[in-house]
Amino acid sequence: MDAVVKPWPKPAANSALSDHVRAAPEPVVPRPSREEAEAAVRTLIAYAGDDPAREGLLDTPKRVVNASEELFRGYTECPAEVLDRTFSEIAGYDDFVLVRDIPFHSHCEHHMIPFYGRAHIAYRPTGRVVGLSKLARLVDAYARRLQTQEHLTSQVTTAIDEILKPSGVAVMLEAEHMCMSMRGVQKSGSSTVTTRFTGSFRESAEEQVRFITLIRAAGR
After folding, report:
1. Among this protein's residues, is 179 annotated catalytic?
2. Active-site hit among 35, 36, 69, 109
3. Annotated catalytic, 111?
4. What distance in Å separates the CA atoms of residue 89 and residue 98, rounded to the nearest whole number?
5. Per the residue annotation, which of 110, 150, 203, 206 is the catalytic one?
6. Given phi > 0 = left and psi -120 to 50 = alpha, else beta, which region is 158?
7. Active-site annotation holds for 78
8. For this structure, is 150 an active site residue?
9. Greatest mean pLDDT range, 9-18, 89-98, 113-122
10. Looking at the predicted structure, is the pLDDT value of residue 162 above 70?
11. What is the pTM of this model?
12. Catalytic residue among 81, 105, 108, 151
């Protein structure tokens, strides 16, 4: 028999969800025009010491704005919609589901310089599971915004916890920050690890060890 796919039951008007889970962020009002954004890029080029009117840089403002729309598309995505559809026929499966090594890239909100790495996500379902690709999409929805790694870890965990209502969630992010590798102390290769646990994972050190052991097993 095929699995039954259906939307997750939503609270009235999503009232039980955190603001960042319920909807995409509200845009700045009034939002700058594309022409104003391109003018800002030309100003930064001049501030860096180059001539925005030279041949090689003439189209750079347009390219930067185009790239920004792609790199920061998370501002238009709603996490509640990403995790909206679930599968209910799981034959009594009661262990946790782990998706490891989800690649992501984001931008530090302090310097607007990239950081990138891998996310590892586990949750213990209570009757329904979400499509595995949706967890990767959820990471991107939050990562493609100006972020800190700590905030990104917390937001991903909260979204899964509030929408899917599992008995536990575990999230680990490992990332290299270019604001530390390219500037400042300039220590390339340094890795930052952040974790957050809820429910059964938070209550059980054994579950945390299992989670981390399964993640590390991938590198053997």
Report:
1. yes
2. 109
3. yes
4. 18
5. 110
6. alpha
7. no
8. no
9. 113-122
10. yes
11. 0.90
12. 108
